[in-house]
Amino acid sequence: MKSIMTATVPPQAEPDALPAEWRDFFALTKPRVMSLVVFTGLCGLLAAPGSIHPVLGFTAVLCIALAAGGAGALNMWWEADIDAQMKRTAGRPLPQGRVGRTDARDFGIALAVGAVLTMGLAVNLLAGAILALSVIYYAVVYTIWLKPRTPQNIVIGGGAGAFPPLIGWVAVTGDITLMPVLLFVIIFMWTPPHFWALALFVKTDYAKAGIPMLPVVAGEAVTRRQIMVYSVLLLAVSLAPWWIGGTGAIYGVAALALSGLFVLLAVPVALRRAGAGDAMKPEKRLFAYSVLYLFALFAALVADRLILGQGALS
Amino acid sequence: MSPEEEDKFKRARRGRNIALALILGGLVVLFYAITIVRIGDG
Questions:
Q1: Is A56 within 8 Å of B34 when comparing Cβ atoms?
Q2: What is the ipTM of this complex?
């Protein structure tokens, strides 16, 4: 561990010279990723049938956020030397030496364990157990095991980000049914085209850090084809909640329009070849739209429930 | 440690202490509220 720290921390910034500021610890929680996690978790909770006391509903979403933050900190702890090599991540607190490596690890563990225990004791045991599973999945299965080993890292790792709506739903109902599993599968199918679109225009960074991202290992053509395949699968899966009668027409029409546009934006990405100095506009457009897509799709799910059915908060 | 560094050190520590105090205060309120709700349930 010591040798890794020596290699990654710039000599001008000793980790123990100054106490880290609270902002540095906040940055360890990956706040931007957390916003999507909180939103989809809250949507799962609001779309679930049944009711939950607002205090417990708030606690459930807070626990999902804190556990995601803890998992993010553990990810940054493990990947500090990889982050130092990539332009996008070199400014993070660990590669910059603003937070000590063990401090980041302990912070991550404390957040995750605290969130899981609180969820299990205050909300319900099943929600706590799935929350624990999601942290282990992200911090161990994805970060430590799969990301550095397989170009399918994003596909399998996408499961980690797919847990929040399932957990939010289970916080209300206390059991797992087909609907929350479908919400899980929607995010699972969404993650590869979302992340590979990003990987296409930051490919050189991942190559430099030795991460076997699909564009680095299998090449651009395969990645572009895979983006198309997953976009079509996403279209089918996003309509499934409507087909099985789990939602009304508001969600169904929104899913058809949003996923249809997703596929339309994926087509130019799939068909083209990027030359030297390419601005990668279609890839950047698909990536930007994919973030908006997930927010809009889950917002439609909640709108459907609140307008056509009964909301979860009592 | 120069006076500037010492000042920076104290500011960083103070900021962390305030953040920690707010978090602990928030948790006290949250756990109190959870307890009241759960007792009301049961």
A1: yes
A2: 0.88
